[in-house]
Amino acid sequence: MPESVQPVTPVTFPPAFLWGAATSAYQIEGAVREDGRTPSIWDTFSHTPGKTAGGDNGDIAVDHYHRFRDDVALMADLGLNAYRFSISWSRVQPTGRGPAVQRGLDFYRSLVDELLEKGVKPAVTLYHWDLPQELEDAGGWPARDTAYRFAEYAQIVGEALGDRVEQWITLNEPWCSAFLGYGSGVHAPGRTDGAAALRAAHHLNLAHGLGTTALRSVMPARNSVAVSLNSSVVRPLSQDPADLAAARRIDDLANGVFHGPMLHGAYPESLLSATADVTDWSFVQDGDLRTAHQPLDALGINYYTPTLVSAPDRAPQGPRSDGHGASDHSPWPGSEDVAFHQTPGERTEMGWTIDPTGLHELIMRFSREAPGVPLYITENGAAYDDKPDGDGRVHDPERIAYLHSHLSAVRRAITDGADVRGYYLWSLMDNFEWAYGYGKRFGAVYVDYATLARTPKSSAHWYGRAARSGVLPELDTL
Ligand code: IFM
Questions:
Q1: Most buried by CB count within 10 Å: which residue of 35, 181, 199, 302?
Q2: Does the active-site annotation cover 173?
Q3: Domains defined along the chain, listed by start
């Protein structure tokens, strides 16, 4: 382990640090046909045969819609002081345009009130992948109008909750929405068209800018607006110039495509030229990049594992995966020939290599690219095949070790000068892991899918102790 992420003991965090957990609407709420909600692209996709493992869907999920008071109490009992959740767009604006449904907004107001009452700070994500199906039918993210619809929706939610929620996130992981949704098709809506994926990416950039402006037009100035990016830590297999070039191309498609417009007001020239055979980018209109480049109050970093790439002719034999699910179509338009490699080291149940150095690296990169902008780790965590023991307890030492090493990397980044203000563990509880269905358990809280009973795993207790004390408990004290 490089010195920069070696834990120093005790690992102590600043007093105001936020210790949170994160979830998203479609993954936990269920109640998909209640109170006026209409289908999102994930309802349609998960009900399409062959799209999710075992045909799993979010119809019931973990029934958070009906159990939110218990879930909030659980968080508070554990000692968490922050919770990041997302709003289901089609629950508050069923057709994706026009007037809101009050019952949908009321649900989120009740959730927020419950959180505030229990001393848990809410952070709202407006868009975590569940586009109203009606908007997909009208063209989805490759259509420019979707960005304007998003701004209208942002304004509705900002008006409804802006008086009581200070932390706002426009989009979660727009890379997945664009490139897994429209490129490889492993996510909803399941389209496989590289040009459409790039158009989608641009309209997500535009939506972020328009949505930020819309939120600010209706919310108190004290509120903070951010975006959560799952930027990749892209590493070349070797220092061979061909491998370095492959890494730069993937870095552009994974990171530059969003960092460029959102943080710097321009797409990288190298991205435009590497994708010139896929699209001429004529969908970028005058003023769009200015719109996307809004000053940010904070930035959200979602990190799980690094990415290792090489030029095609340097690919050794063995398993090759970019970690984003199996598809005959690449999520990397114009760079389909780049080879992806399994990074060495232990892996989680997702097959993702555990490497906290990547989190440190990413934090330091954002500190350089967005100087002065407070950073939050808005997702980080691991899936394991957790099972209750004979006494009904769920012991997950691997997850504790994962959290300890990654939180230590965060602490080291703070020591190195990064302004990291909080950490949201992914995820509060086991939930619908998209195309993997319920087979992958990311929760700190175990959910028995037969009864929907919640049992905090040992990692939840460990994390709660860290949250209460601001110091990471030693691994050998468990
Ligand atoms: O479950 C997802 C989440 O919805 C977005 N970020 C990655 C998580 C784990 O795959």
A1: 181
A2: yes
A3: 18-472 (3.20.20.80)
